[in-house]
Design brief:
about 210 residues; alpha+beta; four-stranded antiparallel sheet; rod-shaped
Length: about 210
């Protein structure tokens, strides 16, 4: 009996020791390793500038117009055409004359007219219609004098006198002029005699190059 009590005491002591050990483990703080927080600095890469497209090279403008006008003695040929610039019109006037030597002397005038100048000079009939690019016509000396007189006193009218040239009947001749805007105007002329009434079939070839 005594022996059994001793064994029971030993078992109770062992259980008590085991419970105390578990209690000590539960109270022991668990150390969590601390990581030092370092401030993070975000560096933004600079946005590369947008590459601007180089402006496209402007294509040179070229206008070509060819036509023929039958003229009686003393009449002038008129070539009216639309300009590239908005609201501007172009006009070439050529007057052929027969010299005593039998040559053809041709006086050419080149005009730039605003829409208002065309209206003030009442020259709508000498310019192309809405859906046309050029208009060839013949005018008499009286109408030519009236037109020149009206344009001299009209704003928006720029008249350029081209050189007077002389050539043989049926032979082509060319006149060229340029300006500070690097615009070249070339006018090819050929006067073929008309035996019926002493006039000419005047061929005009206008080339405008920018």
């Amino acid at each position: 009996m005594r022996r059994a009590l001793i064994l029971l005491c030993l078992v109770v002591c062992l259980i008590a020791l085991w419970l105390m050990r578990i209690a000590l483990k539960a109270k022991k703080p668990v150390s969590v390793p601390q990581v030092a927080a370092t401030p993070s600095t975000s560096v933004l890469a600079p946005t590369p500038p947008k590459a601007e497209k180089a402006p496209a090279a402007r294509k040179p403008l070229k206008i070509s117009s060819k036509g023929k006008v039958r003229l009686k003695p003393g009449e002038s040929a008129v070539l009216g055409y639309w300009e590239i610039a908005p609201g501007m019109n172009g006009m070439a006037i050529v007057t052929p004359e027969t010299t005593p030597e039998g040559h053809v002397k041709m006086t050419a005038r080149l005009l730039h007219l605003s829409d208002a100048a065309v209206s003030d000079a009442q020259a709508h009939d000498l310019l192309p219609d809405l859906f046309d690019f050029e208009n060839y016509s013949a005018i008499g000396p009286e109408r030519l004098r009236e037109l020149q007189s009206s344009l001299q006193n009209t704003r928006g009218a720029d008249m350029l006198s081209m050189p007077t040239v002389a050539t043989r009947p049926g032979q082509q001749v060319s006149i060229s002029i340029g300006n500070s805007n690097e615009t070249t105007l070339s006018l090819g002329l050929q006067a073929d005699p008309v035996a019926e009434y002493g006039g000419y079939d005047l061929s005009l070839d206008l080339q405008r190059q920018e």
